Amino acid sequence: MRSPPPPAPQQQQQHATYGNPYQPQGRGGGGGGGPMQPAFGGFMNDQTAQMGFQLGKNAAMAGQEYVEQNFNRYVNVSALKHYFNVSNSYVLNKLFIVLFPWRHKPWSRQQRISSNGQDGYFLPPREDINSPDMYIPVMAFVTYILLSTLLAGIRGAFHPELLGLTATTAFAIVIFEILGLKLGCYLLSISNESQLLDLVAYSGYKFVGIIVTLVISEVLNRGKGTGGWAGWTVFGYTFLANAFFLVGIVDFESGITHTNSPQLRSLKYVLLPENSTDNTRGAMHTVARSQRNRRTQFLFLYSYVVQFVFMWILSRQETGPKAA
Fold first, then answer.
1. Are residues 195 and 273 in contact, defined by beta-carbon separation less than 8 angstroms?
2. Residue 303 · residue 243 · CB < 8 Å
3. Where are the beta strands (DSSP E) in the chain?
4. pLDDT tens, position by position, for the chain (324 residues)?
5. pTM of the full structure
6. Largest alpha-carbon pair distance within the chain?
7. For residues 302 and 265, what is the distance between their CA atoms, to the nearest angstrom?
């Protein structure tokens, strides 16, 4: 007969007692095949917990729906997506047109007839180079803010308040410009379904010229800002290119822009429509000559005078360290 095996050492008994904490244990705490304990003490299977999860899910969905309804009250999300439907080739070609608009033609936007054969709609920027977009203005706006602070830091003129001050100034100018345009459109009875978003897009293209002005002036002036003949020369070119891109040449002798002229530019279809809609009756009527003359003068004032002032303010740069 064999003697019984020797007792296990105390250390091995402790290891056996404190084994794998993730190993299923029975009710008696041993390693047998007893019934499993429900996860989290049965919390997930509790009816009260399930009711709480359902209430939380319903509250989140209701909050999301409320936010979407209130946001759509001020901004048409579906229309906004139209302005961000761009491609790489569109962005490159559009930047070239904004900076070198002199020989570009035609300027008319392309339309597509809907399925009913009566209503038409403008093609998205991806399919029409003359369509306004939001991608370039937004990216140019952010790039302008970062570039201005970077150049100020290179010249030793950076201070902590500069980033916020630059962003606030640029944002205030855009808001003031849009409010002025909306006021002018209201006084001149100009109505357009996508008028606000179009105006926001066109007002943001000037940041492309401002960025070019800041970079080239910084190189030519050797870190002395946008002053001097080099800075004013570059600024003059980008300003004229932006104005030419927006409106083009106006015949001031007759006070009216020629309808069939290829010189008409981007804002023509927004501020100088051939027909106007009577919102109360839903009828179309031709714009009177005197009314069109006033719209032409307003378009010239915005494209040349207002844009010159705003672009000059945005392109100013400090040339030295800030005094303590």
1. no
2. yes
3. 111-113, 120-122, 275-278, 283-286
4. 555 555 555 555 444 444 444 455 544 444 444 555 555 555 556 677 777 777 778 888 877 777 666 666 666 777 788 899 999 999 999 999 999 999 888 888 888 877 766 667 788 899 999 899 999 999 999 999 999 999 988 888 788 889 999 999 999 999 999 998 888 888 887 766 557 888 889 999 999 999 999 999 988 887 676 778 888 999 999 999 999 998 754 333 333 344 333 344 566 566 655 554 443 334 444 557 777 778 778 888 888 899 999 999 999 865 555 544
5. 0.69
6. 129
7. 14
**Are 83 and 133 in contact, with CB atoms under 8 Å apart?**
yes
173: Cβ contacts below 8 Å, ≥ 6 apart: 310, 313, 314
Which tokens hold the place of 174? 């855009």
Residue of 214, 301, 202 whose CA lies nearest to 242: 202
C-alpha span between 304 and 251 (Å, rounded): 15
What does the buried/exposed string (b/e) look like for 292-313 if buried means 16 or more CB atoms within 10 Å of the residue's CB?
Answer: beebbebbbebbbebbbebbee
